[in-house]
Amino acid sequence: MKTVLKQLLLAISLLLAPLTASAEQSEMRLFVNLTTDDTWAAAKAIMFAHQKAQNAGHEAAIWLNVRGVYLADKKRPSHVHGLMAENGTSIQDMLQAFIADGGTVIMCGACSKAAGLTKADYIDGVVMGSTDLVAGWLFDPNTQTLAW
After folding, report:
1. What Å distances lie between residue 19 and 28, 38, 57, 58, 147, CA to CA?
2. Least buried of 77, 81, 117, 128, by fewest C-beta within 10 Å?
């Protein structure tokens, strides 16, 4: 009887394994640490977070820190390299599209202060970061982190 019960439990667990794996995969999140105001690197980071992660059903956030805080300054024009330049899309446009599709753009408060920027200087939809907000992304076991 014990052997039959063990075999039955094994069979059920094997049947449920694909369902568990797909549920875990859909819960994966991406946290992009973007420290540069170089628009070539920024465009790649934003495109990756938006097109590869978010559009695939993964929750995604971009943390703008160090010089990256300048990317969301609504008064600062941005140049975009490569294919993005052909359609006139700016970094701010890319960030706003990311936010509109449910992405989170987090600003480093200390970096913003050092750059002389406040929330009023940023495009609509950015979130001023806090230790708890950033740690909630970084230390979540379902979060993968990339840095640019």
Report:
1. 15, 41, 16, 17, 31
2. 77
Distances, alpha carbon 139 to alpha carbons 37, 118, 127, in Å: 25, 27, 19
Tens-place pLDDT, residues 47-86: 999 998 888 899 999 999 999 999 999 999 877 766 666 6
- Give the pair of three-digit tokens for residue 6: 């063990």
CA 121, 103, 90, 84: dihedral to nearest 10 degrees? Answer: 170
Task: State how far the Cα of 64 lies from the Cα of 110, in Å rounded to an integer.
Answer: 11
Assign residue 125 a region (left: φ > 0; alpha: ψ between -120 and 50; beta: otherwise): left
Question: Which residue in 100, 147, 148 sits closest to 123, CA to CA?
Answer: 100
What does the buried/exposed string (b/e) look like for 53-81 if buried means 16 or more CB atoms within 10 Å of the residue's CB? bbeeebbbbbbbbbbbbbbbbeeeebebe
How many Å from the N-terminal Cα to the C-terminal Cα in the chain? 58
CATH number attached to the domain at 28-147: 3.40.1260.10
- Among 61, 91, 89, 63, which residue's Cα sits nearest to residue 76? 91
For 126-138, write each residue's pLDDT tens digit.
Answer: 999 999 999 999 9
